[in-house]
């Protein structure tokens, strides 16, 4: 492939233009033909790639098209009859070349611009609508036969532009050779052409940086220093040669904005997201089922959905926090139609009906063409991996380039610089850049390329020629500099992976006498900052290492009136209020958090918590929710205790229903082992619970009982998992816990269990009358208890003494907890928050039997912890 583009000069205006494919089509009236769909021609064909096409049709079609284009460009006539596979001996090369020739004959129309080139090659000179004299008809050593034939045809039709025109053009563009005997001039002349060493001098410098982000900041600082030190007079005398990577273009734009230098050559528009492809990919994930929480949240915030951005964010937050969204359930109109269509599909008819419903409800999403493309590859069944590959989003390239005179010039690795500069800074001199390493040919090995060239004359490009072209392009790019060259070498990429020296850096280092490429560079990180070649600014140290300035006694007084001694602070119990302005009741779990960490409780009241999205996980809370549901469904209220044989049949059904309701993602094939383990656990828990009910003679009155009450003026609300009536008339309020009994028993023995006392308070001082509260009012004795599922133990308060299979605690199981709660409620009601100390977790577990979950993995709370007290 030629390096210099073909150019033409208008004889009347003197304007110089690139000879583009569109220009050739207009001048020679080339018919506009639809590019062939190779997938149609590959189907049913007996070819060497048939098995690959059956396994991966899209990828194989792309590879075959690339192979066909390569073979076509290797012919000077762009005619399949120019191929002579019969000249090859029997073997792989002959088989593949024959298959490509036969495919070329069948498609009749070459892909891409080759159809236009073929039309020009077959057209007489008089057919051209305007003259296209070539500005520079010099043949390129790397032009393929088709490019050479096109250039020769255009020269035969139109001739060459006058020599003075070429001289004027060349004077305004980078030279093709180096100038002078400096190190820069020698590299520009001999890179990739010879191994002669040259003497290093200050025209070539090389710096090692940490990663591309630091590299881009350093390049901007170098440009600023060149201007400040008057090495250059204007920004346009500086050029940047960067890898063809959107990350560099975006990062350099930000880096040069920070130092106030304009950057010329950035894309005219931003790099765009393929939001339609993203949406279609999400829809396929949701319609395949089970629904991942993160995929549903991502759909909610898609800009193509028929709801506002704020509504989408609210729905996403709700589904990530709770697994479902109340806001989404209340949607109507097009939004309801989309959400109603998000149900798993098992047939192509269901899939495309639901995709069509979404496309109609979101007309601005542009889904119809993408859905039609999926329909063409779908026949009897649903090939989900294939559909996801076809729907995958693509990077939408930025249109054009914004070039202007005054800015620092930006050049990319795949093209020649568009103007000369005094100082050139090359970034990314590591990894696969400079030159970009050629990939392997999927059709022919290097030996087969040589065999085909010798036997048939077909000049297929080999790996050596591709590498030579890359080196020559890099040499020509370096020729844009007239006075100085700065090479920047990142040690690692943006993922943190180590990078090796590029081929270009190794060759330059060898020419400058370095034994190893990295001997050439100056490691910025290893040098003293006062010796850096750019200005550096040290940020001021963060006070006390970034930790907050906390009061020594660990007491925060919130909203306390300044200058008014004794004025009360903010009532923190009223941070959450209902529609009538009354404080929202506190739950036992929130008050247990208050008992452990008032600051964690405050953050919870404010809704200040980590909202990082994470996929569903089979954690303790999910397991507990599922097993709660299994017990509720397997032991319905008002029915006899099921026999073991009945449980063996009903528990699997109850488990499937619980998973479908609370963790549908567990139905996926990758969770099969976890489901089997969970089924065994559910069978054991249900069997043990049935044994307890039988042994105690308990009757199941209710499941999932809501409780509301009052304790010392503090409004409470909670939910009991199960309500039993014992033979002696006592009422047993049970809370199922997926844990063992050891820690709970220890807590009750030490008097720090809070939940049983709060349940009793809600029953004895209810704020809402229920059947249960009426029983208590009539004198029914209430026992509050925990059922720990992992060891099938039931622990109760003192009122449970004498009941078979129940371990009853002493009278003071909650004494210390309730005393501490009263003090903390008074403090937060007056705007006072006690901070935790670093050793509280161990202290709580040792002295109180409490596992301090509120302090675990909570970065907010940890940031406001005080150090351990100095007991000495």
What class do helices, strands and sheet pairing give? Answer: alpha/beta
Mean pLDDT: 89
Helix content: 40-55%
**Total beta strands:** 19
Terminal CA distance reads: 80 Å
Describe this structure in words.
The protein is of the alpha/beta class. It is 42% helix and 11% strand. The strands form five sheets. A seven-stranded parallel sheet has the order 5-8-4-9-10-3-11. Strands 13-14-15-16-17-18 form a six-stranded mixed sheet. The protein has a two-stranded antiparallel ribbon with strand order 1-2. Helix 13 (293-300) packs antiparallel against helix 14 (309-322) and helix 25 (620-634) crosses helix 26 (644-662). The protein is elongated and about 115 Å long. The N and C termini lie far apart (80 Å). The mean pLDDT is 89.
Summarize the model shown.
The protein is of the alpha/beta class.
Tell me the layout of helices and strands.
Layout: E1 7-9, E2 16-18, H1 21-27, H2 38-42, H3 50-55, H4 57-73, H5 92-107, H6 114-121, H7 145-158, H8 163-171, H9 183-190, E3 204-209, H10 212-228, E4 238-242, H11 246-259, E5 263-264, E6 266-267, H12 275-288, H13 293-300, H14 309-322, H15 326-329, H16 334-341, H17 348-361, H18 367-376, H19 384-391, E7 401-402, E8 408-412, E9 421-426, H20 446-456, H21 463-478, E10 481-490, H22 503-511, E11 522-523, E12 555-557, H23 588-596, H24 598-606, H25 620-634, H26 644-662, H27 672-696, E13 699-711, E14 714-725, E15 731-737, H28 742-749, H29 755-764, H30 771-777, E16 782-788, E17 793-796, E18 806-808, H31 815-829, E19 832-834, H32 840-848, H33 859-863
Parallel strand pairs: 3-10, 3-11, 4-8, 4-9, 5-8, 9-10, 15-16, 17-18
Antiparallel strand pairs: 1-2, 6-7, 12-19, 13-14, 14-15, 16-17
């Amino acid at each position: 492939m030629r390096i210099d583009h073909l150019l033409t000069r208008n004889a009347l205006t003197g304007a110089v233009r690139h000879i583009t494919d569109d220009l050739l089509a207009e001048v020679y009236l080339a018919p506009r033909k639809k590019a062939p769909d190779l997938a149609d021609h590959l189907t049913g064909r007996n070819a060497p790639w048939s098995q690959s096409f059956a396994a991966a049709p899209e990828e194989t079609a792309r590879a075959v098209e690339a192979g066909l284009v390569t073979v076509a460009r290797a012919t000077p006539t762009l005619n399949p009859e120019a191929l002579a596979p019969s000249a090859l001996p029997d073997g792989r090369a002959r088989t593949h070349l024959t298959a490509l020739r036969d495919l070329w004959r069948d498609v009749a129309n070459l892909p891409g611009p080759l159809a236009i080139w073929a039309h020009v090659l077959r057209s007489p000179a008089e057919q051209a609508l305007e003259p296209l004299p070539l500005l520079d008809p010099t043949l390129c050593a790397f032009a393929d036969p088709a490019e050479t034939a096109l250039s020769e045809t255009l020269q035969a039709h139109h001739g060459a532009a006058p020599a003075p025109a070429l001289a004027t053009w060349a004077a305004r563009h980078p030279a093709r050779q180096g100038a002078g005997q400096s190190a820069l001039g020698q590299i520009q002349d001999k890179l990739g052409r010879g191994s002669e060493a040259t003497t290093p001098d200050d025209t070539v410098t090389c710096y090692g940086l940490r990663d591309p982000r630091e590299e881009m900041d350093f390049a901007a600082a170098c440009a600023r220093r060149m201007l400040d030190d008057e090495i250059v007079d204007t920004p346009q005398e500086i050029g940047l040669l960067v890898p063809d990577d959107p990350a560099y273009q975006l990062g350099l734009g930000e880096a040069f904005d920070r130092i106030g230098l304009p950057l010329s050559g950035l894309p005219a528009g931003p790099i765009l997201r393929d939001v339609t492809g993203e949406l279609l990919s999400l829809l396929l994930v949701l319609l395949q089922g089970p629904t991942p929480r993160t995929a549903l949240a991502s759909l909610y915030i898609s800009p193509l959905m028929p709801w506002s951005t704020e509504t989408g964010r609210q729905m996403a937050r709700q589904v990530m926090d709770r697994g479902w969204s109340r806001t989404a359930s209340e949607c109507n109109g097009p939004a309801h139609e989309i959400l109603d269509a998000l149900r798993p599909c098992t047939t192509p008819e269901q899939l495309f009906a639901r995709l069509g419903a979404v496309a109609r409800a979101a007309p601005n999403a542009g889904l119809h063409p993408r859905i039609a493309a999926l329909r063409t590859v779908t026949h009897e069944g649903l090939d989900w991996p294939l559909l996801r590959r076809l729907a995958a989003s693509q990077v939408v390239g930025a249109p054009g380039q914004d070039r202007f005179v005054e800015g620092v010039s930006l050049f990319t690795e795949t093209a020649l610089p568009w103007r000369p500069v005094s100082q050139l800074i090359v970034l990314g001199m590591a990894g696969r850049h400079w030159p970009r390493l050629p990939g392997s040919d999927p059709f022919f090995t290097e030996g087969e390329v040589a065999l085909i060239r010798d036997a048939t004359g077909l000049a297929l490009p080999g790996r050596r020629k591709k590498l030579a072209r890359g080196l020559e392009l890099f040499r020509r790019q370096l020729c844009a500099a007239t006075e100085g060259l700065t090479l920047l070498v990142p040690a690692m990429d943006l993922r943190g992976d180590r990078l090796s020296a590029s081929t270009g850096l190794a060759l330059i280092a060898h020419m400058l006498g370095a034994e190893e490429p990295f001997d050439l560079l100056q490691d910025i990180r290893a040098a003293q900052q006062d010796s850096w070649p750019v200005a550096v600014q040290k940020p001021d140290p963060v006070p006390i290492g970034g930790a907050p300035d906390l009061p020594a006694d660990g007491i925060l007084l919130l909203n306390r009136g300044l200058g008014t001694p004794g004025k009360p602070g903010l009532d923190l119990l009223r941070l959450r209020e209902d529609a009538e302005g009354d404080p929202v009741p506190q739950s036992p779990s929130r008050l247990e958090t208050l008992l452990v960490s008032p600051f964690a409780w405050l953050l919870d009241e404010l809704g200040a918590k980590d909202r990082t999205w994470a996929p569903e996980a089979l954690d303790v809370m999910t397991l507990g929710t599922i097993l709660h549901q299994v017990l509720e469904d397997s032991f319905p209220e008002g029915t006899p205790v099921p026999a073991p044989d009945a449980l063996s049949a009903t528990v699997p059904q109850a488990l499937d229903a619980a998973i479908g309701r609370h963790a549908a993602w567990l139905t996926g094939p990758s969770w099969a082992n976890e489901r089997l383990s969970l089924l065994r656990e559910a069978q054991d828990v249900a069997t043990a619970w049935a044994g307890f009910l039988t042994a105690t003679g308990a009757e199941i009155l209710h499941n999932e009982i809501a409780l509301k009450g009052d304790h010392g003026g503090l409004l409470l609300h909670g939910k009991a998992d199960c309500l039993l009536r014992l033979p002696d008339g006592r009422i047993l309020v049970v809370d199922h816990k997926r844990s063992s009994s050891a820690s709970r028993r220890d807590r009750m023995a030490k008097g720090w269990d809070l939940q049983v006392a709060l349940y009793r308070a809600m029953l004895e001082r209810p704020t809402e009358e229920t059947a249960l509260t009426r029983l208590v009012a009539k004198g029914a004795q209430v026992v509050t208890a925990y059922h720990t599922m992992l060891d099938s133990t039931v622990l109760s308060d003192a009122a449970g003494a004498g009941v078979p299979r129940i371990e009853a605690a002493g009278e003071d199981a909650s004494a210390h907890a309730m005393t501490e709660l009263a003090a903390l409620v008074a403090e937060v009601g007056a705007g006072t928050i006690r901070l935790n100390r670093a050793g509280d977790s161990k202290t709580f577990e040792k002295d109180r039997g409490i596992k301090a979950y509120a302090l675990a993995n909570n970065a907010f709370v940890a940031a406001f912890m005080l150090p351990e007290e100095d007991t000495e």
